[in-house]
Amino acid sequence: MHRPLAHFGFALLTALITAVSIRATTLDFEDLGSNLPISGDFFYNGCNGSGSPTDFTSQGATFNNDTQVFGSDCFWQGWAYSQTTDTTTPGFGNQYSAIPGSGAGGSATYGVAFTGGQVGAQGPVSRITFAQDVSPIGAEVTNTTYAALSMRDGDSFAKKFGGASGNDSDYFLLAITGRDAANAITGSVEFALADYRFADNALDYIVTEWTFVDLAGLGAVRALEFELTSSDQSFGFLNTPSYFALDHLAFAPVPEPASGALLAIGLARLARRRS
Fold it and tell me: Would you say 63 and 128 are in contact if contact means Cβ atoms under 8 Å apart?
């Protein structure tokens, strides 16, 4: 006589699943934000005089940051984190603000990536490396104020998206690629930060709110790489400011093989008890 599973070993099954369940981490940059000064620059871009590299780490994830210092000038690429809130000032001087005016969900701190803008050679520039294999779940992504206003209005380097007629098929795309411990690609997800390729111009858009990007299809990864492409480019470089903002990156550690084996053994024993 076979009885429902609930009558045999439900407590065992629950205990096994609980034992091997993995709590997801949501990386929100707030631990890093506590390091920012109360007055002065409300961002970190690695320009602290120590030279390259100046990576930073949060909740088991390392964000690459590279700087070059020339006299009194410092140039950075990779990742920064910020609490700036300026949604109206155009131009390079406002490169650390997210266009929504805060982090995701109104939080104070968020990440800003600058890819360098070199077409086809950005993979290593904006990279997040994890301390162990993880399964990405998703992240909130948006434009920076610098990029959004440049695309909306044009500037001295970049065109207004859509052109004078509004009919130009412009785009600004973010590709997020997973890489395993051997640096092999596990998959890639594309997200349009702006898209003017619609036949109906009324559908054209520039992302101005935090938007969830599903990363579950990337599988188990050791790193995420970020690359931007734009319809507006010259001589192998993007004219569109090659920035985006990221927050609330959710991921879960990949269970150790022993944990998976424990669950399998427990389920097998449970199945035998049912027969």
Answer: yes
Question: Nearest 5°: phi and psi at 181?
Answer: -65, -25
Place of tokens 């205990």: 15
Instruction: Of 36, 38, 114, 20, give the one whose Cα is nearest residue 82.
Output: 36
Q: Which residues of 69-103 are buried (b: 16+ CB within 10 A; e: fewer)?
A: eeeeeeebbbbbbbbbeebeebeeebbbbbbbebb
Residue 31 to residue 41: CA distance in whole angstroms = 17
Tell how far CA 184 is from the center of its chain: 19
pLDDT in tens, 145-194: 999 999 999 999 999 999 999 999 999 999 999 999 999 999 999 999 99
Q: Where in the chain is the domain with CATH 2.60.120.1350?
A: 26-254
Compute the radius of gyration of the chain from its Cα atoms: 22
Q: What is the pTM of this model?
A: 0.85
Question: Helix or strand or coil: residue 147?
Answer: helix
Instruction: Kindly list the averaged pLDDT for each block of 10 residues, start to end, along the chain of length 275.
Output: 43 44 86 81 80 85 91 89 97 97 97 85 78 97 98 97 97 96 96 97 98 98 96 94 97 75 51 52
Please give the CATH topology (third level) of the domain spanning 26-254.
Answer: Jelly Rolls (2.60.120)
CA separation (Å) from 161 to 64, 97, 140?
A: 30, 20, 23
Residue 189 · residue 221 · CB < 8 Å: no
Could you tell me the sign of the dihedral formed by the alpha carbons of 152, 154, 157, 158, in that order?
A: positive
Q: Are 178 and 115 in contact (CB under 8 A)?
A: no
